[in-house]
Structure prediction request, 469 residues.
Amino acid sequence: MACVSINGANRLGSNSLPELLVFGARAGKAAALTSLEQKPPSEHVIAQANDEKRRLEEQFLRKTGGRERIATIRSEMHQAVESGAGIYRTQDSLQQAADKLQELRERFRNLSLDDHSLTFNTELLGALELEFMLEVGSAIVASALHRTESRGAHQRTDFPARDDRNFLAHALIFRSPDGSARIETTPVVITRWPPGERVYGVKSEVKEVAAR
Amino acid sequence: MAETISVEVARYSPERDTEPSSQRYDVPLHKDWVVLDALNYIKDKMDGSLTFRWSCRMGICGSCGMMVNGEPKLTCATFLSDYAGDGSPVRVQPLRYFPVIRDLVVEITDFMNKLQSVKPWLIRGDEKAVSEGEYLQTPEQLDRYKQFSMCINCLLCYAACPVYGLDPVFIGPAAIALAQRYNMDSRDEGAGERMDVLAQHEGIWGCTFVGECTKVCPKHVDPAGAIQQYKLTATIERFKSFLMPWAAGNSEMESAK
Prediction:
């Protein structure tokens, strides 16, 4: 996933638009240029593609006997992430979400599809999206558990203060061979605007006067 | 037990079927449910193989257009309760006049090619350098094309157009309205280039002014109005090219902006 860092800790909904427009256009151009220079795929790439094809067939298209439906797991996931890792988070709420997501990832293996067609199979697409969302959701929850401070859109009510000494850093999350998450950090490059306290109302006026 | 409504959905799978059939599902009838909610209910709870396009659920993405009881509709903006009452099922079918890929999904490559052919983007003779600043536009200049810019490419107008139904070569309502969206833009200088495509028989002259496109448009774009407007422009340009060959080209378009 991309991290171009132009919004700092405040990459909420529509703040992502400049990122999408600027870096999306650059990524698209770069991808087009790269594809022009590419040689045909090597046998390793073809073998990898064939492995993935086999996985899709075994795990979804030709699988029988599963009992879980996409929509059930998806709505339980929505519920778990919204209540555990929504606007306000705590150790407890995040841990509950982490446990629930782990359970859902196990239940996902017992998924059953009605659609075994190879033509415009939107149910298969829905299953793959759900698999990705479960993984991304788990990564979000693991990073939020790790960050025992509050910063920007990440508000831990059990750690309300910003902690620059330990957490003025990007969290990078990796998938370990056993599937669990491993977190590393990389420093934030500060250019024009150092992080400051976010205050509103009278406090913000006081801050402005103090700055002058 | 909640009230229910029957939905009769067109089914077709090229791997299995030689012709389309229909399948009936009974779904809950909630007052605030649209046809798309019923389709998603079926897919989530009853039959995951039912296939249809959708995305935003709020009339912006233009992907959930289908025939509902024979009329082209955005299914996210069409309430089930409007079809309840007489006990007959709501019929949901793929958009008319397009080839069907599967169930309610139609093949839209033909439209995508037509759209591309009218060059729906700003064309400039000379691009200003970024340092020279923006291309300014007054509110009045914006008003000249704004209506046409509301198009979401949902293709309801194609499914409503009997001319497109008879002659698939006809470039069609949305593509012409989108060409006008740029022709009427004060920043654009591409009207001459677009005329090559639009002034052909398959362009504006295919239209017999039935007006159905404008009636079904969920964004009030008025493609029929765009086509009539362009017919006048093209006629003037044509006469001008006979009488004053040195002045033909962009002049009529440009003065209208």
